[in-house]
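User: Quick one: structure for sequence A, then sequence B.

Assistant: Sequence A:
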Amino acid sequence: MRLSVRLLAASALALSLATPVLAQDAATIQRAERIRDAALRENIALDYVTQLTTRFGARPAGSKAEQDASAWAADYMRQHGFRNVRIEQFPLVGWERGVESASIVGPRPQGLVVAALGHSPGTNGVIEADVVRFDSLEALNAAPASSLTGKIAFIDAGQMVRMQDGSGYGPLSRIRGAGPAAAAGKGAVAFIMRSAGSDEHRMPHTGTTRYVEGRVPLPAFSLAAPDADQLSRLIGLGETVRISLSSTAHTYETVSQNVIGDIVGASRPNEVIVLGSHMDSWDLGTGAIDDGAGGAITLAAAKVIAESGRRPARTIRVVLYGSEEVAQPTNTGNGGGAYLRNVQAAGQLENHIVAGESDFGADRIYALRLSPGAQNSDFQRAATQVLYPIGVLASGEPELHGGVDIGPLAEAGVPVFGLAQDGTRYFDLHHTADDTLDKIDPEQLTQNVAAWAGLVWLIADSDVNFRTMRPGETPAH
């Protein structure tokens, strides 16, 4: 069903479900509904993500492409009415993939499709060694000390479970983060793993691995799902499998940056609502769904609010974070941490009312998650009245942590909200060469903007205080 039809069909039901709200909220809710509808008709999200991915392509953290894209995005914000636009740099260890290859050399030659894991060191030539297969990280950890000396560790934990909320990703990303160090601890010369994705395409998913004592301990690769199947079958036949690996990946010193722009509040400008996404991407695709779309959604939502005819009371701040994707040898090289350090240094942390992050592609939003104290509150009921007509339900699950970018704010005590997106196909594309603009559905992208715009207006033009709300309480209005 198209969104315009769904909007008309659902409006009456939404109004019947919504608990009546306090009279003084009626004007704010009505304006939120008008802003929602304006976003459904027209917004700049598709224009932004089209220009970003076309002009700059992939934007690895710390690369010239990321830096140039950030400068362009700052100009884009200025052209569309944002104020206080600035770029805040921070130091970073960058990483370049270089050239990589892999093949089975025995018992019979076969090609393999791999991608080096982010910040993995190069192989310094060619590594050729026998492969030892494990079906879990736990099995690798249980291997005897030095049992992998001179060998390649391979974990095939099976296909990622496809879930709407993306929860199948965690078990495989955990292997990607901890596997190289575990393999090195057993004496291995390299590490490979089944690609962390829900697809069966011959297209590996990259992603960062973990620094241990200031370094990634050995060359590490993800293996495309069909190739992982092939390798596991071959080992299962009792063959001794020997693999050749090569990579020229290397790190370098550079900088990344956060791009920040405000829609300044009319009466309480020092009270800030942060809308976050990240500018950097992996190098295999063009970073359309991860996370060009998130920047498009949050920027467009703020612009729709700014053009609604009246500024909200509070300031809406869009932050395009740098360096979300990559691990670092210290905790200084990520955009979320850099933003937190800057607002703490300026004594502005307490001014942050709430933060939300869009970093799960561009498919439709289906649920609203609020901080624990806002669950079952008047505010949640008002939000339901605005969001239900576009297919967004109030979730009984609270939002506690936000995403990677706003996570530091959450840990510092800033309340967070979540607009849960349908991630059913997200991990088919995530961190692959298939993360390109054509994968964005414009109608679903528009629904995202409408949901963000309607909800954020409700927050920005109210005096709801998520910091002081406790479970079971209702906010002051």
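Sequence B:
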Amino acid sequence: MRGRLCVRVTSLLMVLVVAGCGGSVGHEVSEDAVAIPGVAATPPMGWNSWNTFGCGVTEQIVRAQADALVSSGLAAAGYRYVVVDDCWQAPSRDPSGRLVAAPDRFPSGMDALGDYLHARGLRFGIYTGAGARTCAQLNGTYPGDTGSREHETVDAQTFAAWGVDYVKDDWCSSDADPSAQRSAFVAMRDAIRATGRPMVLAINPNSGITATDGVPGAVHDWGGVATTTRLTNDIESVWRSGQDASGYQGIADIADAARDADVTVGAGRWLDLDMLEIGVGDSLTAAEQRSHLALWAMAASPLIAGNDLTRMSTTTRDLLASTGIVAIDQDPAGAMARAVTSDGWTRARRLADGSVAVSVTNPGDQTETIPVDRSVVGADGTTIDVWTGREVAAAGQSITVTVAPHDTAVLRISRTV
């Protein structure tokens, strides 16, 4: 992200002024506005079909992934949303203008799939495009033009009838006009509200947009418009991609953007750092995957796995289910970590019990021993290594951690009585 958000608060309205973007942004929302009441008191957790299956997704695949989510224990660990991403839909709507499932790959229909997921204690997520076409249709990799533009009401009603619990709404357009984006996403928000069914609205205002001063997810606060908002463009399974916010980005690139994000997060309004690449291919080291999960949790980001759950290793399963890290992500205080060192790689967030979670990331290529300044993080109690549960330092003792290249140490420092 090129510019840091500058927030001015006037009465009950939050007016955003974005450095380098030419003045006021047209998003004025109540400081504590929630797009869809009654959902996502903590960041959503689950699984999404796209990273592994793309346009090859089928109902058999989704059912198998759902079964694995339960049998692996990940559902019990909090991963409950099963999101069917792009290409589930037929290339054209039915005669009444409603979306229908691709009959060759979802022959039982989406309502039956929703029933299958709900019977297993899971929640049903589905994808749509905010424009005239979905992203796969925009890119020419899937036929048709079945985006939700000017169909928000009927699509929200359809999703509600199918028992959908989560709607991923992807911009999929090169048009970066803030008013056009806001109009489209607000239309879907209002349509979801009107159904009476509480559905998470997860938006990505960045897809399809090239921007030199940061993509829309980075330069607006969408908290009153959507439940979760993507911060950057799409993730790729590398540590660094060398791209700016307009292209694919690696783990460290997105973590850099999260350092500068200055928006209000909390129950019902979360900043989304994109899906998890843990267990997807073999391009990320074990240390990088640990950093991936830790930095997402510190940012209170949704944790949406993207690996093949039916083939995952025990190592992948155990990492995704890391009790202490998931607890930080799901902490009810809903705070987002802030950088407490000049290099930005030591971050802290206050937790609901008064303790402080601290992450210490080593972005370099050599192992480093790094001190943690108690006075800076604001906690003087016992220090626990969140990964292992072992005590690192007694109350008042100095703290140092040894961190391997691209790895992240995570500490939980209790408050003193």
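The radius of gyration is 21 Å. The longest strand covers residues 23-30.

User: Thanks, that's what I needed.
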